[in-house]
């Protein structure tokens, strides 16, 4: 039995979805609002998002719409 390793962005996306579902963030909020919640970790996640051609001005709903994270 082989175990599939999830891309780090899958975990991040799940965390952001949870924040939206709990009404901490809105789907229409800009991605930069996530920085307020992630503090020191934000630099890493911002770099990851930019590698997938996201801008901090993009709405969170675009991040949540991604079906598969592949390098």
Describe the structure.
This is DUF4327 family protein. This protein is mostly helical and 71 residues long. Helix content is 51%, strand content 0%. The protein is built from 4 helices and no strands. The chain is globular, with a radius of gyration of 12 Å. The two termini are 24 Å apart. The mean pLDDT is 92.
Average pLDDT for all residues: 92
Figure out the total of helices: 4
Number of strands: 0
The radius of gyration is: 12 Å
Shape: globular
What is the domain tally? 1
Structural class: mainly alpha
The proportion of strand residues reads under 5%
Low-confidence stretches: none
What percentage of residues falls in helices of 4 or more residues?
40-55%
Topology as H/E string? HHHH
Largest sheet: none
Distance between the termini: 24 Å
Protein name: DUF4327 family protein
InterPro entries: DUF4327 (IPR025477)
Pfam families: DUF4327
Organism: Oxynema aestuarii AP17
List its traits.
DUF4327 family protein; DUF4327; 4 helices; 71 residues; 51% helix; globular; mainly alpha
